[in-house]
Amino acid sequence: MGLTHSSTGKEISDIGLTVKKQSPQDMCIAIAGNPNVGKSTVFNALTGMNQHTGNWPGKTVTNAQGYLLIDGETYVLVDIPGTYSLLAHSPEEEVARNFICFGEPDAVILVCDATCLERNLNLVLQTIEITSKVIVCVNLMDEAAKKHIKINCKKLSSELGVPVVPTVARKKKSLEALKKTIAYVTHNENGTKPVQTKYCPEIEKAIEILQPCVEKKTSGRINSRWLSLRLLDFDESMRDEIVSFFGEDISQDEEIKQAMEKALSLLSDGGKDKDDLCGLIISTLVGESAKIAQKSVIYEKKDYDKTDRKLDRLFTGRLSAYPIMFLLLLFIFWLTINGANYPSSLLSEFLFYIQDKLLLLFDYLNAPKWLSGALILGAYRMLAWVVSVMLPPMAIFFPLFTLLEDSGYLPRVAYNLDKPFKKCKTCGKQALTMCMGFGCNAAGVVGCRIIDSKRERIIAMITNSFVPCNGRFPILIAVIGMFFVGSSAKIFSSISAAFILTLLIISGILLTFLISRILSSTVFAGVPSSFTLELPPYRRPQIGKVLVRSIFDRTLFVLGRAAAVSAPAGVIIWILANTEVNDVTLLSHFSGFLDPFAKIMGLDGIILMAFILGFPASETVIPIMLMAYMSQGMLIEYESLAELKNMLVSNGWTISTALCTMIFTMFHWPCSTTVLTIKKESKSFLVTALSVLIPTVTGIVLCIAVNAAFRIFL
């Protein structure tokens, strides 16, 4: 169930989120933390299935809310996006900051990773500057034990002045102490006394000057010390949220304005410029985190992270990183190609069996032929094609991708590719969105949300379709199998196909670099932004969690969007194939019109027409092509690659045609689902148009060049 402003419950108008309460007495608990600390695992374990998701209003950032019952009282838990700091840059970090700072939760649970506690304490210290209602949940205690790391939680609680609870979120019994602590903190106003971070003398004196004026103006609605520090270290994003929270720009209040001028003057006299303030604050917080961790964390083995460092030398080494990425990519594609064949065949048989039964039903009801043709042979048959071709490879690829993410390898890929993307004046995070594009370009575009810079986010969206999604794999695999692999033994045939496919993928990655560089130097010129990239510890993937996330969050989401556009497209294609003008179908007229230009590209009119009509779903390109070649009135399926090759050769296909078809499959307009997603994410017609034009022009130019080379040299 989605979240709306009309939902029943307490509305937190400052951040636009309606917290759905079952009764007015329910308390709101925010669950925060760095990425990769098990925050969502804690949330899921506490709330079970009693949760729902939506989007933060005005943001393309997902939220989740759930309910927890403790001693007969209901608590509303809000799983906010992972963030390293409340000094936010990305949309996710802004949402997390705004909810903690201005959402007025009754308590905040900060989930930390026991294996790298020092890094997590920075966020803890920032949060307890805002609210005293903080609970530190030190998660992954089992992982810490494996690395011979001990956490003195009593000492840590004493140093921070807030409750500290050790947990292993995957074991629900370990969360009982956390539940009791939630009840204690929310029912005891003076139950915690958080430590107050002390900054350098100049900053402390500046806060002393400004804080009384802020306290007087805000009447205690928000922590005056924290707000004074934010007014001194001001950025536009924070300014907008403060104005939204108070309904006015309090920095323009005359008394506060004078105090700010005096405080900034004092800082300047002490050699502390306003531009240096953020760095000074961060360095103080980092230093305090290190001191607290040193007192609370015991490393029984000096080389506790020895295995991780060895793996990092292998996976991120100068000589080994890229070959391993290549071999891993090869293995994933080989597994996807081989693993999808059998389930795809079974699914196809089942769905077309249903089609036959539907046709019998329409005949029994004496439905007009045009109606059964449009609905069954058009809409349903197209839908069956898309589902049977897309679902099996996605159901294999996305879990494999999520396993890499869950194990900690995927951030290493971003690390390896950061340097080449930086040379292209873009962001290393684009590597992650590009990897997601292999499963589905629409999912890759949605993944671009993780890129902080708007300029770099747009470049990543535009170039995402330069890597082929699983919808284009069937075309590539079929053409490779017919014209470039031959009739070798099955195992060698599949490995050869995966190898050639991997080479094509690498060509797409290289073109992604090239086009990104061109765009970042021309239309979207700018300086590449820096970003924080965490290399989390290697962990054993949680198989159940991986399957749920990959199937429900990615596979079914993408499949649903594809199905929504493929059914109406099936009706249109059926009409074109069955409507005649001068005894020639519209499909033939269309392909004949395109033929002259297609010949220049090394294709023919039918191939180009199939790509155009396959805009709703790339999986339909081959069946549309066959339907036109064989003058059939509906999408048809080929029995074997050998039969398909004979039919294509008899219609003029050569090695040149096959190669140009593969190139155009790799580089042409994104499917309709991806285009709609780009429009939704970018909210720009120009960006959407460029996302269609740039890969299409690239593909046309490459096809013309390859065709010309074949004509000249062969």
What would a concise description of this structure say?
By secondary structure, this protein is α/β, with parallel strands linked by helices.
Domain module count:
3
| Coarse shape | elongated
Q: Please identify the structural class as seen in this structure.
A: alpha/beta
Query: Using only CA atoms, what is the Rg?
Result: 29 Å
Number of helices: 28
Distance between the termini: 61 Å
Which regions contain 5 or more consecutive residues with pLDDT less than 50? Answer: 1-16, 52-60
Mean of pLDDT = 82
How would you write the strand order of the largest sheet?
4-5-6-3-7-8-10
Helicity level: 55-70%
Largest sheet: 7 strands, mixed
How many strand elements?
13
Q: Tell me the fraction of residues in β-strands, as a range.
A: 5-15%
List the helices and strands and how they pair.
Layout: E1 10-12, E2 17-19, E3 27-33, H1 39-47, E4 51-55, E5 62-70, E6 73-79, H2 91-102, E7 107-113, H3 117-128, E8 134-139, H4 141-146, E9 149-151, H5 153-160, E10 164-166, H6 176-187, H7 201-218, H8 224-232, H9 236-246, H10 254-269, H11 274-296, E11 297-299, H12 306-315, H13 321-364, H14 369-407, H15 410-423, H16 430-439, H17 441-447, H18 454-463, H19 473-485, H20 490-521, H21 543-578, E12 580-581, E13 584-585, H22 586-600, H23 605-613, H24 621-629, H25 641-650, H26 655-666, H27 672-682, H28 685-713
Parallel strand pairs: 3-6, 3-7, 7-8, 8-10
Antiparallel strand pairs: 1-2, 4-5, 5-6, 9-11, 12-13
Helix pairs in contact: 3-11, 5-11, 7-8, 7-10, 13-14, 13-20, 14-16, 14-21, 16-17, 17-27, 18-20, 18-28, 19-20, 19-25, 19-26, 22-23, 23-24, 26-28, 27-28
